[in-house]
Amino acid sequence: MNWRAVQSIYLYEMARFFRTLMQSFISPVISTSLYFVVFGAAIGSRIQEVEGVSYGAFIVPGLIMLSVITQAISNASFGIYFPKFIGTIYELLSAPVNFLEIVMGYVGAAATKALFIGLVILGTAALFVDLSIQHPVAMLLFLVLTCTSFALLGFIIGIWAGNFEQLQLVPLLIVTPLVFLGGSFYSISMLPAAWQTITLFNPVVYLISGFRWAFFGMADVPIGLSLLAILVFTGLCLGAIWWIFRTGWRIRS
Description:
By secondary structure, the protein is mainly α.
């Protein structure tokens, strides 16, 4: 394993993040505050509690998941797309590093950035509502796995994208709606029976449900199923990236 190469890619990507630290830090704080004003105050005044948890606290795991997923995809996709755009990807491919080392550098940096944003949002949320985390280790595990798995997905999107418009296509048209419809701001048990069944086909439901269980000890789907879903998703992404580097799809043409 060429750890020097992994470290170089990782530090280069993190340096890009720290150059815009104020933007990276302030933006999620403002967005989270606005979500609390709109959903916590406006809707929360009509829905006092969901399954024994105050509505303001109930939406915190969904808010964190929403930001973490979009940030992980955005950072990873841009990180690998930009070398393709300016042509330096060929220098990387001709260097003595294998695909696993490249993925570890880019995905590790993107996952770290998303994890940082998630912790910032958690700290911001604690200013608005009383929060207690029943399973802190499980919460951290779900957060790290979510950051990593969606950074892998973002890496695939960055390789697939042919221009900046395509880079935003999947996150905006597919991922964000799935997060909103995945129980970010409500429990799926509040939906009609038919919609509950349909919602179970949304993979984001399992992530949010597991993450919410770590906070409040309650979940829409069994915790084991949530963990299995995120592990399967991570495995599929790793398999897709291995195939991409093996065939050179979209990176050698």
